[in-house]
From TrEMBL:
Enzyme Commission number, as recorded: 2.7.8.7
Keywords tagged on the record: Transferase
Family of this protein: Belongs to the P-Pant transferase superfamily. AcpS family.
ATP-binding as UniProt keyword: no
Catalysis performed (reactions): apo-[ACP] + CoA = holo-[ACP] + adenosine 3',5'-bisphosphate + H(+); apo-[ACP] + acetyl-CoA = acetyl-[ACP] + adenosine 3',5'-bisphosphate + H(+)
Name the record gives this protein: L-aminoadipate-semialdehyde dehydrogenase-phosphopantetheinyl transferase
Domain named 4'-phosphopantetheinyl transferase: residues: 1-95
Coiled coil: none
Spans annotated as Disordered: 143-162
Species whose genome carries this gene: Staurois parvus
Length: 162
């Protein structure tokens, strides 16, 4: 992970008191980096060392949306806005809204939206209005359910037949 975080970010992570607090800060930084590369659409080919975050505030309350974190790209400060929220004591979410200079009108609309926290939905909620694309074919389920839970280990030696 040292390839993915800058020295300043590692200092921020390591400066937290205790292993759980350090892990929490690690996940927060990771969520921010992931939100940025998804927003610019370049994927993991982008060197994450090029982007650096200074998180603010250091600690977050569950359910509250924060937009104070700042970002540097190639050691230059950027005007990107990030919405961050702690969903519960173990799950961070970060959304990159964009550069306020190049997309000021859209970003302003998004920042005004930030007073509404993220909504956690269950699988049941998500599937409540789902409509099948094709008719059910029981042979698919029969084939799936007949598979072993774990694959069997293959023998390294070829079997010898007499």
């Amino acid at each position: 992970m040292h390839r993915q975080f800058t020295e300043r970010e590692w200092h921020s992570i390591k400066s937290m008191a205790g292993d759980w607090a350090q892990l929490d800060m690690f996940y927060r930084h990771w969520a921010l980096k992931e939100s940025f590369i998804k927003a610019i659409g370049v994927g993991l080919g982008f060197s994450l060392q090029r982007v650096e975050f200074e998180v603010s505030p250091i600690t977050m309350e569950v359910g509250k949306v924060y937009t104070e974190t700042r970002m540097w790209l190639d050691e230059e400060p950027e005007n990107w806005v990030f919405e961050e929220m702690l969903l519960d004591d173990k799950h961070h979410v970060a959304v990159a809204l964009g550069d306020t200079n190049t997309n000021r009108e859209q970003t302003s609309k998004n920042v005004m939206r930030s007073v509404t926290p993220f909504t956690i939905i269950t699988y049941k909620d998500l599937m409540a209005s789902a409509v099948p694309l094709t008719e059910e074919d029981s042979s698919y389920w029969d084939s799936f359910s007949s598979k072993q839970e774990l694959p069997q280990r293959q023998s390294a030696k070829p079997s010898s037949k007499s």
